[in-house]
Amino acid sequence: MSKQFVTAAQGKQENQKSAIVLQDRSHLIHPQHHPSEHLDPQIWESGEGVMLRNLEGEEYIDGLSGMWNVYVGHGRRELVDAASQQMSRLAFSTAYAGSTHRPAVALAERLKELVYPGIEAFYFTLGGSDATDTSVRTARFYWGAQGRPEKFKIISRKLGYHGSTIGAAAATGVEEFSSVFGPRANGFLQIDSPYPYRFTTNRTDVSAGVAAADLLEDAILREGPESVAAFIAEPVQGGGGGVLIPPADYFPRIREICDRYDVLFISDEVITGFGRTGRWFALEHWGVEPDIVQFAKGITSGYFPLGGIGVSGAIKDVMDRVDPAKRWMHGYTCSAHPVACAVALANLRIINEEGLVERSLRLGERLLEKLQPLKESAHVGEVRGLGLLAGIEIVEDKATKARFPESSGIGKKVRDKLLSLGLCTRVTDDIICLAPPLVINEEEVDRIADVVWTAVAETVGL
Ligand SMILES: Cc1ncc(COP(=O)(O)O)c(C=O)c1O
Question: Which of 129, 372, 378, 450 falls 20 to 30 Å from 221 in CA-CA distance?
Answer without folding.
Answer: 129
